[in-house]
Design goal:
Distance between the termini: 111 Å
Radius of gyration: 50 Å
Strand content: under 5%
Structural class: mainly alpha
Shape: rod-shaped
Number of strands: 0
Number of helices: 3
Length: 145
C-alpha cells in the first residue's frame, strides 16, 4: 500500500509548490509585459511603414521632378512653328523671290529706255549687294556631330 508522506516531506512539497506559484506569477507578469511591448512595437512598425510609404512617394515625385528639370534643361530644343507661321514665311520668301527676279528685268528695260534711270538702278543694285553681305555669315555655335 501507499504510505503517507511525513510532515517533513509535506513541508518540502508546500515550499516547492509556493516557489512554482511564484515563478508562474513572475512568468505571467513577464508575458503581459512582453505582450504590451509587442503591441507597442507593432504600432511603431505600422507608423514607420506608413512613413516609409510617404517617403517613397516623395522620393518618386522628386525623381520625376528632377527628370523633368533635367529634360527641360538638357533636352534638344527646336523652334516648331505653327502652320500659319510656316505659310507666312514661305509666302514672304516667294514674294521676295518674285521681286528680285522682276528687279533685274526692270533694270534692263529701264537702262535701255533712260540713262537717268540707270543711276537710280545703280543705287538699288548697291543696296542689294550690301544686303547680301549680311545674309551669308557662317553659323555660330556648335557644329553638329
Amino acid at each position: 500500500m501507499t504510505t503517507q508522506p511525513t510532515n517533513k516531506q509535506l513541508n518540502a512539497m508546500r515550499c516547492a509548490l509556493a516557489a512554482l506559484q511564484t515563478e508562474r506569477d513572475s512568468l505571467r507578469t513577464q508575458h503581459e509585459s512582453l505582450r504590451t511591448e509587442h503591441k507597442v512595437l507593432q504600432t511603431e512598425r505600422d507608423a514607420l511603414t506608413g512613413e516609409n510609404r510617404v517617403l517613397r512617394v516623395e522620393r518618386d515625385l522628386l525623381k520625376e521632378r528632377l527628370a523633368r528639370a533635367m529634360h527641360k534643361m538638357f533636352a534638344a530644343r527646336s523652334e516648331v512653328r505653327g502652320s500659319e507661321q510656316k505659310d507666312m514665311f514661305f509666302n514672304e520668301a516667294e514674294g521676295l523671290a518674285a521681286t528680285t527676279q522682276a528687279a533685274p528685268a526692270q533694270e534692263e528695260d529701264g537702262s535701255a529706255q533712260n540713262s537717268e534711270a540707270g543711276s537710280d538702278a545703280d543705287t538699288t543694285n548697291a543696296a542689294a549687294v550690301s544686303g547680301d553681305k549680311h545674309k551669308h555669315h557662317p553659323k555660330r555655335g556648335r557644329k553638329p556631330l
